[in-house]
């Protein structure tokens, strides 16, 4: 019998834990690859609790349970998770491990799935628990899977070759680079676990996870340039086999753990930021010498080839026309009061699909009206969906996946009739000034993203306000919309990557914002490419940014008097480029709207 209520599911899990001799269990949002987005088969937290966010976890004990989310989901978790079943706990004020240490009794046995948690989390939790006399137990088979009767199976969508013309480099060339690194470090092999790293290394894509074109698989790359791909046999087509060639041995995904156990005496590099604890355990048990080192695909994947850079420009141009059509539609329909957040999501998807090139969204569209726009990571669903009120701000953060590039854009617009408040205009203009400051930045080679973050915030700080998220994240090439290692964020913050040096060819977002809880939110986001700054007479190498995203910005929310001549020149130059790139793709009323939006400020 299927359990329809979360109370019944929680009760069934507790019975299963009791049967296994466990006093508690930790439930993350994760898969065997520590992916940001996970397939339906791995949505264990959502099944158990009803929580639909992309970051969070739960702890279930026999007498109590708790949900752990950060400030992005304070409202959402209370809407979706029954407070009679779960306590609400805020991260980073506490954490699952800290909470267990406080609430579990001495001698308690707390289970965790070592194939869903990072090794450093497991080691830190084990150390903390030991002080309290609590035992952390790696379970044999996830107990949720034992009680989730109608759990979906992992996707069997075929893995497909990604043409070298899009990638700009062959898989053989990439594997040779990894092999050279292995030899230089004295390693025999490395385990590549992150799905986008596997996809990049083999020039392979898939359809196993919404919004990210990857195939569920692992790679064991060897110092001789060969590799083993562990993937479900049903996903392998003759085209993929031919594409991979003789140097890549295709093996059943089920053989992965046993293969790790057979690497006795081998020196194997594993990235603790991307590999689950179960991989380390299997290698240790098999007698391999495990070295913790960075995934060798991460940095070269972030530095886009000339082909990938041009692909991004092409994808952005196509996407810009679709988003421009959408913004015109919003400007006409939303003031009538008959457009809600979900309708806007569907309409934007329709415009992107009309390009004939869209493969998927790059993430779930943030379609946020009124107070919802003050939640930076708001995700609309049937329960939270509201009409877009006339005389309000509407924020839309969205992106598309195309064979030649991945897009991510946020536009904030005023929905008439009437005029925005002076405060709204002031805040939007300050966000715009920060966006321009970053877009125009020049900086010495080897500068970190963290060193640039203040440029985007300085004008907001002058008014005594700020925003709580990072300013920029890396973006993949027909891969993950959130890609490391680079990012632009406050140094020393909660986000890894702020110390990574920016390099030519990296793509990042430029997305400062401002959020007034319960009232409105503002964000302006374009993607930017790190390039040579071209400063004549520069003493050493200097870098700057090329803007890749071209869609009009809402002039209704701009106070020209707060802009410098330099900023007005940027605005006018930017919109001249928007017109040049997007106008040839539009006609009729869409073209007339674009021309009006792009006239000089």
From TrEMBL:
Keyword Nucleus attributed: no
Database matches in InterPro entries: Creatin/AminoP/Spt16_N, Creatinase/aminopeptidase-like, Creatinase_N, Pept_M24, Pept_M24B, Peptidase_M24_C, X-Pro_aminopeptidase_P
Pfam families documented for this protein: Creatinase_N (PF01321), Creatinase_N_2 (PF16189), Peptidase_M24 (PF00557), Peptidase_M24_C (PF16188)
Transmembrane segment boundaries: none
GO molecular function terms noted in the UniProt entry: metal ion binding; metalloaminopeptidase activity
GO cellular component: cytoplasm
UniProt keyword annotations, A-Z: Hydrolase, Metal-binding
UniProt domain Creatinase N-terminal: residue ranges: 9-141
Residue ranges occupied by any Peptidase M24 C-terminal domain in the UniProt entry: 541-601
Annotated family: Belongs to the peptidase M24B family.
UniProt name for this protein: M24 family metallopeptidase
């Amino acid at each position: 019998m299927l359990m329809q209520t979360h109370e019944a599911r929680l009760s069934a899990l507790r019975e299963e834990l009791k049967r296994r001799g466990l006093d508690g269990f930790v439930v993350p949002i994760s898969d065997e690859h520590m992916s940001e987005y996970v397939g339906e088969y791995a949505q264990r937290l959502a099944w158990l609790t009803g929580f639909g966010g992309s970051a969070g976890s739960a702890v279930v004990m026999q007498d109590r349970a708790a949900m752990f989310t950060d400030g992005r989901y304070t409202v959402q978790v209370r809407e979706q998770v029954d407070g009679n079943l779960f306590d609400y706990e805020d991260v980073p004020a506490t954490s699952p491990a800290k909470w267990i240490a406080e609430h579990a009794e001495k001698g308690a046995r707390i289970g965790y799935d070592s194939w869903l948690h990072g090794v450093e989390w497991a080691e830190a939790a084990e150390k903390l628990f030991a002080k309290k006399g609590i035992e952390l137990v790696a379970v044999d088979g996830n107990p949720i899977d034992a009680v989730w009767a109608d759990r979906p199976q992992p996707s069997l969508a075929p893995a497909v070759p990604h043409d070298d013309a899009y990638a700009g480099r062959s898989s053989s060339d990439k594997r040779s680079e990894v092999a050279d690194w292995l030899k230089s470090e004295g390693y025999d092999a490395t385990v590549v676990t992150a799905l986008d790293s596997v996809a990049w290394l083999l020039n392979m894509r898939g359809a196993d996870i919404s919004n990210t074109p990857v195939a569920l698989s692992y790679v064991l790359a060897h110092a001789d340039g060969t590799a083993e791909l562990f993937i479900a046999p049903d996903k392998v087509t003759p085209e993929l086999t031919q594409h991979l060639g003789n140097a890549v041995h295709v093996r059943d995904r089920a053989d992965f753990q046993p293969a790790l156990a057979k690497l006795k005496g081998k020196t194997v590099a594993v990235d603790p930021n991307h590999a689950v604890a179960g991989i380390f355990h299997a290698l240790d048990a098999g007698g391999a010498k495990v070295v913790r080192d960075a995934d060798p695909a991460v940095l070269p994947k972030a530095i886009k080839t000339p082909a990938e850079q041009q692909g991004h420009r092409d994808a952005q141009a196509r996407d810009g026309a679709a988003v421009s059509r959408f913004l015109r539609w919003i400007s006409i329909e939303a003031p009538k009061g008959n457009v809600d957040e979900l309708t806007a999501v569907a309409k934007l998807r329709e415009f992107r699909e009309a390009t004939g090139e869209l493969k998927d969204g790059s993430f779930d569209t943030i379609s946020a009206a009124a107070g919802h726009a003050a939640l930076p990571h708001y995700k609309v669903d049937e329960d939270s969906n509201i009409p877009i009120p006339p005389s309000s701000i509407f924020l839309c953060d969205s992106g598309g996946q195309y064979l030649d590039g991945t897009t991510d854009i946020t536009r904030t617009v005023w929905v008439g009739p009437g005029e925005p408040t002076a405060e709204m205009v002031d805040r939007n203009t300050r966000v715009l000034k920060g966006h321009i400051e970053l877009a125009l930045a020049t900086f010495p080679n080897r500068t970190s993203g963290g060193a640039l973050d203040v440029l985007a915030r300085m004008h907001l700080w002058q008014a005594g306000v700020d925003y709580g998220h990072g300013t920029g994240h890396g973006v993949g090439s027909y891969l993950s919309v959130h890609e490391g290692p680079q990012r632009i964020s406050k140094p020393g913050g909660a986000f890894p990557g702020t110390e990574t040096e920016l390099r030519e060819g990296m793509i990042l977002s430029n997305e400062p914002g401002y959020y007034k809880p319960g009232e409105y939110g503002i964000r302006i986001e374009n993607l930017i490419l790190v390039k040579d700054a071209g400063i004549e007479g520069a003493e050493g190498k200097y870098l700057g940014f090329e803007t890749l995203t071209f869609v009009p910005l809402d002039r209704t929310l701009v106070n020209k008097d707060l802009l410098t001549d330099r900023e007005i020149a940027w605005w006018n130059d930017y919109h001249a480029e928007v017109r040049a790139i997007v106008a040839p793709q539009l006609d009729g009323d869409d073209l007339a709207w674009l021309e009006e939006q792009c006239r000089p400020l």
